[in-house]
Write a structure and sequence with these properties.
heterodimer; A: mainly beta; seven-stranded mixed beta sheet; 11 strands; 0% helix; B: mainly beta; four-stranded antiparallel beta sheet
């Protein structure tokens, strides 16, 4: 069974940093593109970042302005999101998402989400 | 950035009725469009990709159509389990973008 376990979310002060992780199992992780998608409380879905199968190509939402970094460790079947200079508006449930293949970024499996709260 | 606009924001229907949800892209995305269903407290579920290809396990009552800039998700006969929020997403170019969602109530 395909499983994605998101973790690392917590309460953090504005300006702080956080590292999210997503542990994958049940599929050949190294063969699939991956992404992070967030959802602010009561709001819609917002794509955050994506990464190619080998990790050599990364993509980000324009609004992040270089504050977030996506990476992956194919030897450990794990996806990461390093978040810095966090703002109140970054408060959201962050989902790890598996692309349906190695090329096209539509997502056929999602983690349960890990909550990030940015507040003083 | 390709802006995705969904309409209506809310669709009020009864079980057994047909639901028609629209999604418009600000520029052509060919058929690189996906639809998701999200229920309260749950992660999104992929319904359709390639504008019209049902994901495995998705009932035949969900039909996607369209190409270019205009897309439609049709729920042929609403079941109680279908009342949820539906999002479209384009994957034609970067950044990826989602529509604002349609709540089917």
């Amino acid at each position: 069974e395909v499983q994605l376990l998101d973790s690392g979310g917590r309460l953090v002060q504005p300006g702080g940093s956080l590292r999210l992780s997503c542990s994958a199992s049940g599929f050949l992780f190294k063969n699939y593109a991956m992404a992070w998608v967030r959802q602010a409380p009561g709001k819609g879905l917002e794509w955050v970042s994506g990464i190619s199968v080998s990790g050599d190509k990364t993509y980000y939402a324009d609004s992040l302005k270089g504050r977030f970094t996506i990476s992956r460790d194919n030897s450990k079947n794990t996806l990461f999101l390093e978040m810095s200079s966090l703002r109140v508006e970054d408060t959201a449930l962050y989902y790890c998402a598996k692309a349906s293949n190695s090329i096209y970024f539509h997502f056929d499996k999602w983690g349960q989400g890990t909550p990030v709260t940015v507040s003083s | 950035e390709t802006v995705m606009t969904q309409s209506p924001a809310t669709l009020s229907l009864s079980p057994g009725e047909r639901g028609i949800l629209s999604c418009r892209a600000s520029q052509s995305i060919d058929s690189k469009l996906a639809w998701y269903q999200q229920k309260p407290g749950q992660a999104p579920r992929l319904l359709i990709h390639g504008a019209s290809v049902r994901a495995p396990g998705v009932p035949v009552g969900f039909t996607g159509s369209g190409s270019g800039t205009e897309f439609t998700l049709t729920i042929t006969t609403l079941q109680s389990d279908d009342f949820a929020v539906y999002y479209c997403q384009q994957y034609s170019d970067w950044p990826l973008t989602f529509g604002g969602g349609t709540r089917v109530e």
